[in-house]
Amino acid sequence: MEQREPRAAAPGADDEVKALLDAGRLVEANTLFDRVVSRVPPGADRWARSAVLVNRAKLAWRLGRIPLALELAAEGWTDLDGEHADDPAAAQAMLALGYLLEGIGNRRAAVDLLRLSVRVARRADAPEVLAGCLQGLGGTLNFRAISSPPELAPGIFAEARDHLREGLALTRDPQLHRALLGACGRSLAGVGDLPAADEAASETLRQAVEAHDRWAEAVANWVLAVVRRERAELAGARTLASRAVAAAEAINDTSLLLRFSLDLADICARMNDPVGESAALRRSVAAGRTATETLQEGLAQALEQRRVAVQAQRLAVAAQEAAARDPLTGLANRLGLERSAPALLESTTTRGRVPWLVLVDVDWFKDVNDDAGHAAGDAALREIAQLLRRECRAGDLVARWAGDEFVVLLGDNEGAAHDVGPTVAERIRAAVDDHDWTMVLGTTRRPTVSIGVAAGATRLDQLFAAADLALYRAKRHGRNRVEVEPAVGVGETV
């Protein structure tokens, strides 16, 4: 793409990486990038951090490090979400992200973001930043014009030219000036002003050679080739286009290489040079294949990241569920009960029904542990948990409160009788009392349960306190029995 990658907001070392890339010194650029990629300037605010991250994503992209580029871009884009303050760094982040989106083929989003970067930079009253944003938008519009229908291209080139001229009047940065001037030369050629295009490109080339700026050199040679082609000076056009292609290869800019190769092929075809045309087309195909492979790798990386995210989400849910479940019995534990009770109580009272809580305590459990051992005691608790599940209804919440205490919070089941709490409690008591404990406990004294039942309150702590009073009476009156506490707390909220 003709837009030059943004340099604003980048720390000095990032600028050095970009300069090495533009000079075609890819190995050195890669080495330096490894040293700076993990460092964010101290004290950087949200916008500055976003700009640095997205700028580094572009550098990683040009270095062929696609997964890292995607990771950096996603993180920087996330920081950019929300309201955009009139902050120069916000404009710089949008500029860098727009460049990257154009590079991966998301052209509509790229132009929208680049236009937004210009508006933000203009409101921020930051001339150099605005110049960079205008170069990004103008360069991208140049490429858009080239791929547009012939009747639309001059209007798009004219808009690009106006943006680029404005940027030239604002900047004092030599590198940005070269980028703006070269891109403006292509716009001028696009609107038919070939003398002005030739002058702009020739000056860009002179400055680029002095500064060892291969990126600007590539663009300048390309524009000069286009001018020569339009003047039917095809031999000179072929030479200049070949130089542009070589420079684009040296700086590893796939977008430039693809565009320049196609123009070189067109010039060779007009010259009836099938060998040159074939060689240029092979370069174009290779560049297109690289771009396609880049997108495929990016898609694969995005898919893998999504898979990892889904897996992490599932693990988090599983961990959350495990934290709310008793490992011995598989019932909800105290945490699980406290999490789920409010919603169940609210649902019950909303339907005009009275909540019930059944508090179950195992009789003689200490004797079971002492006589049969703790392993047998654990087995007995598991058996009681199974009996509770069997005797309770699908909508009931069954939990192990602590030790040998269990809680059943009766759900909002259709058709439930008014005295459903005592009824379920009696079923539980009878099931435990009638259970054959021989396989679990042998001849050890078999356990029974004492149960306290309470209704009326719509807060778990109130229901539990009332049921606990009833349970105390059941224990005091001989165990293996059900006691019911009078209704309490009617009308209170969860």
Characterization of this structure:
The chain has 494 residues and is mostly helical. Helix content is 69%, strand content 6%. The protein has helices at residues 12-22, 26-36, 46-62, 66-80, 88-103, 107-123, 127-146, 153-170, 174-190, 194-211, 214-230, 234-250, 254-270, 274-323, 334-350, 365-372, 374-391, 420-434, 438-441, 460-476; strands at 356-362, 397-402, 405-409, 449-455, 482-484. The protein has a five-stranded mixed beta sheet, with helices on both faces. The protein is elongated, with a radius of gyration of 38 Å. Residues 5-10 and 490-494 have low confidence and may be disordered.
Question: Summary?
Answer:
The protein is mainly alpha-helical and 494 residues long. It contains 20 helices and five strands. Helix content is 69%, strand content 6%.
Strand and helix layout:
Layout: H1 12-22, H2 26-36, H3 46-62, H4 66-80, H5 88-103, H6 107-123, H7 127-146, H8 153-170, H9 174-190, H10 194-211, H11 214-230, H12 234-250, H13 254-270, H14 274-323, H15 334-350, E1 356-362, H16 365-372, H17 374-391, E2 397-402, E3 405-409, H18 420-434, H19 438-441, E4 449-455, H20 460-476, E5 482-484
Parallel strand pairs: 4-5
Antiparallel strand pairs: 1-3, 1-4, 2-3
Helix pairs in contact: 1-2, 1-3, 3-4, 3-5, 4-5, 5-6, 5-7, 6-7, 7-8, 7-9, 8-9, 9-10, 9-11, 10-11, 11-12, 11-13, 12-13, 13-14, 16-17, 17-18
